[in-house]
Design brief:
The protein folds into two domains: 31 residues, no CATH class; 159 residues, no CATH class. The strands form two sheets. It has a five-stranded antiparallel β-sheet, with helices on one face. A four-stranded antiparallel β-sheet has the order 7-6-8-9, with helices on one face. The termini are far apart. By secondary structure, it is an alpha+beta fold. The longest helix is centred in the middle third of the chain and has 54 residues. The chain is built from two helices and nine strands.
């Protein structure tokens, strides 16, 4: 056959079709063009491939990595802040729980000591307050302190009866004890004596006593109870904590064994 316009010698079969090797020769320029386009960053159809990557290849661009790192940093910062906040809340709750437990323990201790107060006679005491030799000396109190005879637990003082003093002020609520036979003004550092701070950081302490100090007439609340009046029917201990203090103290009211001033 005569050569065609492309200069290639084409052969046709009897069916009139161009042979395969001839088609490959005709497509060679087109394949070369696509390979060049891929090297230049195109997909061969005029579309740019991002970052020079071929279609179907994995990986992340620099912008994607920066965004991911930023998000992870923000998430870590939020988690750290949450952990710190939770830790502070837990610490404050633990401190408040310890303070409330301390207040509860002090209330129960005082309740038992006051409820077990003994109405001793003056003759049973080795030494009496001046001018009150003929009066019972088992109990006396004022608005800020009171003193009475009671049994102390063995983990605080040796066994037996002790004269116990409870006094309160801004510096705290104090407990002192000495043997029951000791005089009112006996030293608190003698044998069998001791002193302990029950509560600290107080705004105020108030004691009052219910009964009839004279032993007759209607009973009522009094800010003081003389030693000559026997024992009151009730004792009330009120404590106020500073503002912002989580501790609470409902008034502690304790009934004592009936005495001459109980009004019963």
């Amino acid at each position: 056959m005569p050569p065609d316009s492309t200069g290639l010698s084409t052969q046709t079969s009897r069916t009139g079709k161009v042979s395969g090797n001839v088609w490959r020769e005709l497509d060679a320029p087109r394949h070369a063009k696509r390979a060049y386009a891929r090297q230049a960053g195109h997909d061969g159809r005029g579309e740019r491939v991002s970052g020079g990557r071929r279609r179907g290849e994995g990986g992340f661009t620099l912008i994607e990595l920066l965004v991911a790192v930023t998000l992870l940093g923000l998430l870590a910062m939020l988690m750290t802040g949450g952990v710190r906040f939770g830790t502070r809340v837990w610490e404050r709750s633990a401190v408040a729980a310890d303070a409330l437990a301390e207040v509860h323990a002090v209330r129960e201790f005082l309740r038992r000591r006051i409820a077990e107060a003994r109405p001793l006679d003056a003759g049973a005491e080795a030494d009496e307050p001046p001018g009150e030799a003929a009066a019972p000396a088992a109990f006396r109190g004022s608005a800020g302190a009171m003193e009475f005879v009671t049994a102390m637990p063995s983990y605080v003082a040796p066994g037996g009866l002790h004269r116990v003093a409870i006094a309160g002020g801004a510096d705290g609520l104090h407990l002192a004890w000495r043997p029951a036979g000791a005089p009112w003004d006996a030293a608190e550092d003698g044998a069998g004596s001791g002193r302990r701070l029950l509560l600290d950081r107080l705004a105020g302490v108030s004691l009052s006593y219910f009964g009839s100090p004279e032993g007759r007439g209607a009973a009522g609340w009094h800010d003081a109870w003389p030693a000559a009046a026997g024992m009151p029917a009730l004792v009330r201990l009120a404590i106020v904590f500073p503002e912002g203090d989580p501790r609470e103290w409902p008034d502690l009211i304790v009934a004592l064994p009936a005495g001459e001033g109980s009004g019963r």
